[in-house]
Amino acid sequence: MTNSDLKLFVEFLLNKNYTIHSPVRKNGKIVIREITDSRKFSLIKERPLYSFKNFLLPDKKTLFSTTSDENKNGNDQKLIRKQVLFGITVFDLRAVSLLSQIFEKDPYFQDIISMTLFIGQSPIPEENSFYEKYEENILEHFKFDIFIESRGDQKDFRIFTGSKHGQKMLNEFGYDDFEHIEYAGAVPEEGLSDFHKKLKEKTKLSYGSKIWKDLGKKCLGCDKCTIVCPTCFCFKIYDENNIFNDSIARVRQWDSCFNSEFSEIAGGTKFLKTMEDRIYNWYSHKFVRIPDEYNLPGCVGCGRCADVCPAGINIKDEIFKIMKFKAKKPIAKMSKFKSKTLKKPRTKKLIYEKPI
Ligand code: SF4
Ligand code: SF4
Hints:
By secondary structure, the protein is α/β, with parallel strands linked by helices. Helices cover 35% and strands 18% of the residues. The longest helix is centred in the last third of the chain and has 20 residues. The radius of gyration is 24 Å and the shape is globular.
């Protein structure tokens, strides 16, 4: 497909009443904007500052609202518009695969997904990105409708389809020079890569080490990394009350584990008291708990968190340190500690206290 064919395809989608979101260059930055004029469209291959997360998992969503007269479901299909995420790179497609598993039973997320046409593209290497070398065979693990591949100076794009919906759109547009890729599930047959298995173990092992103490001193807890991260999905739920018209709305809003209130429970106890606790929690969620639960890494390696961090924390460097980590205190020492505590069985004390 040529560049001018792409513009015509954008025109075709606009005529089909799709709202198209795509990366554009604005004031020297790559941001995602609505495309309304196909003549001005060009495929930007650089990674946008933000991911497409907001179009699938809005930063603030009313789940339902009610007054004494009527109930409104925030999931009303009529409120969800058909949309195209045009030019979503493999990093963000990988993040969508993960979010789709995490929100598998969430009707709000799934309804938006069902109204979304995903048009992916191959990435170009970015300064802070890592892991993902684009190879055609990784596409079978991503959910997409259409994929645009370009390599080097190549002028024409190679087109793949990943769904019947994508095929139908191209057929209606009058284009059939594409190859179809059958979806083989988000998790590759071999499961987690050796790299991620090792990273998982090292992250657990390094708990309490200098890596986290140093990061705890450096991190400002500003949340910027969690906002731009395509896989961060934590949220809070609260009610918005309006005493003047007796209405109430239950709202779901993005939250961040870097906020000091994030882990607070009734009575004021906080599970993540220090910045060191919070930043360790962030990494261990991505590299230990999500892989344990979904067999996928919780970080797709887009590098956005490093781009925006005001403290200069670069996740790529931190992963390098974690992978190099060697425990000074071997596991054997921990068992010694355990056996020491076992030498004083509480039952013995109880026996002495028992009145005869
Ligand atoms: S962007 Fe940097 S300073 Fe801000 S919370 Fe994230 S790691 Fe900490
Ligand atoms: S943790 Fe950083 S590199 Fe990993 S997916 Fe999130 S923003 Fe991208």
